[in-house]
Design brief:
single chain; alpha/beta
Length: about 325
């Protein structure tokens, strides 16, 4: 089936997240740090010791810094947003995609950050351009689905490998429009054979990570986190102002490792400034003020890529998220 619904640990997991939020968050993060410590460190060492700086595995481009949801854990929610409204310059966006193509980039691409991508009226055209220029990249969209319709889904599906619909709710039920999409795709799977649609059942008031102290419902404590972090090694994080930031936890757009209106994408990724902070983070988050109280850890997607790369399978890493799907060309 091209569409499926995922609810982490089912009803039990949902009730844990709802009734015991701090316990659920703490237990989950403790488990993730314990089980991923070794491979994260191995990948950091691999990256820093490579003869040539490895390309990012995921390029994230936030084209508009706005959301339309009320998720309690995110500063981009409509009650907590503090950023000045900004949309990425269209010429800059096309330049970024062109540079990725010239670089021979075949990794993952998402036009998403701390935002709702469907709020940008250019988003379909942006995906179309990315697919034309990057035929072998795994392009995925992550949306809260609040304004997603079958018509919009049909517009975007030719250009993406995967659509992730985060169904944020309080009652463990699909929103009406998402239910309609699920019913239609289920009844007409042949129309969606070339795209994977994953509906994530998400609790609207969930406690996740402190996101470097920015999460509205989980402020950072004084506890120093001494683990490393994959994000500066796996992800290129591009904000609407054209800056390369440190990671998705920079909800306030304060970090700055390159201005893509002034330097090339490759120069920014390989800059001395970025390399210096990676070396510090490889030895532990305590070495970087922005990171030292941050308890964020990826939920598994990046670890799959890292495992493939450490095993010498770069092409496998490029397919993570849709191993059974042919890359669109």
């Amino acid at each position: 089936m091209p569409i499926k619904i995922n609810n982490f640990m089912g009803k039990f997991g949902w009730n844990m997240r709802k009734y015991f939020p701090k316990l659920a968050s703490g237990a989950y993060l403790t488990l993730q740090f314990l089980t991923r410590r070794r491979e994260q460190k191995l990948y950091c060492d691999y990256f820093l010791n490579a003869a040539e700086t490895p390309k990012p595995n995921v390029v994230n481009i936030e084209t508009i810094n706005r959301c339309n949801s009320t998720c309690a854990f995110c500063t981009a929610n409509i009650h907590a947003e503090k950023r000045p409204l900004r949309k990425i310059d269209e010429d800059l966006y096309r330049s970024i995609i062109d540079q990725l193509a010239d670089w021979g980039y075949e990794g993952h691409l998402t036009l998403y950050g701390n935002n709702e991508p469907l709020l940008d009226p250019r988003i379909v055209d942006f995906h179309r351009y990315a697919r034309e220029k990057l035929p072998n990249s795994f392009i995925f969209m992550s949306t809260n689905g609040l304004i997603l319709s079958k018509e919009k889904l049909d517009e975007i599906k030719p250009y993406v490998n995967q659509i992730i619909i985060n169904n944020y709710c309080m009652d463990m039920k699909l929103h009406k429009n998402i239910q309609e999409i699920y019913d239609y795709v289920t009844a007409h799977p042949e129309e969606y054979a070339d795209v994977e649609i994953l509906i994530q059942m998400r609790y609207l008031q969930e406690v996740l990570t402190n996101r470097a102290g920015s999460a509205p419902n989980k402020k950072a404590t004084e506890r120093v986190i001494k683990e490393t972090c994959l994000l500066p090694f796996t992800d290129m994080w591009i904000m609407p102002n054209g800056k390369i930031g440190l990671c998705c936890c920079d909800n306030y757009e304060t970090t700055d490792f390159a201005d893509l209106t002034k330097v090339s994408l490759k120069e920014g990724w390989e800059s001395e400034k970025f390399t210096a902070v990676r070396k510090k983070i490889a030895e532990g988050r305590q070495n970087v003020d922005f990171c030292k109280h941050c308890d964020f850890i990826d939920a598994g997607f990046r670890m799959q890529m890292v495992k493939a790369i450490l095993a010498g399978d770069q092409s496998g890493a490029n397919r993570v998220g849709g191993e059974e799907k042919k890359l669109k060309g």
